[in-house]
Amino acid sequence: MIFTSFFFSVRQSLRGCLMIRKGFFLLLTVLLLPLRATDIRPDAGPLPEVEREASPLSAEDSRKVAAMADFALFIHRVFQNPDKTALPDSVIEKLYDVLEKDPSSREIIALVAADLADFLAKKQERLQRLAGIAGDHPENLALNLLTAELLSGKLKDKTLAGKNTHQAVSLLKKAIDSARTRQKETPEKLAEAYSLLALLYASLEEFENADRAICRGLEVVSREKRPELLQTAIRVYFDAMNRSADEKPFLFGWFRESRREKFTRKFEEASSEFTEILSSPESRLDSERFLAAAAIFSDRGETELALLIIAAPLFAAPDNLSALRRLAAFYYVSGDFANAARVWRRVLRIRKNPTAFESYMYASSLQRSGDYRSAAAAFAAHVKRFPKDLLPLAQYALVSYLAEDYRTASEIAGKIPSPLPETLYIKALSEERLGDYSAALKTLLQYLSVRKFSDEDEKYPISIQTALTADKAKRYDVAAAVLEPMIDADPENADLLNLLGYLYAEAGINLGTAEKLLLNALELEPDNPAILDSVAWMYFRQKRYWDAREYIDRSLAATPKGESADSVILDHAGDIYNALGDRKKALAFWRKALNFYSEELDPLKVLMKIENAEHGTAEP
Question: φ, ψ for residue 83 (rounded to 5)?
Answer without folding.
Answer: -95, 25
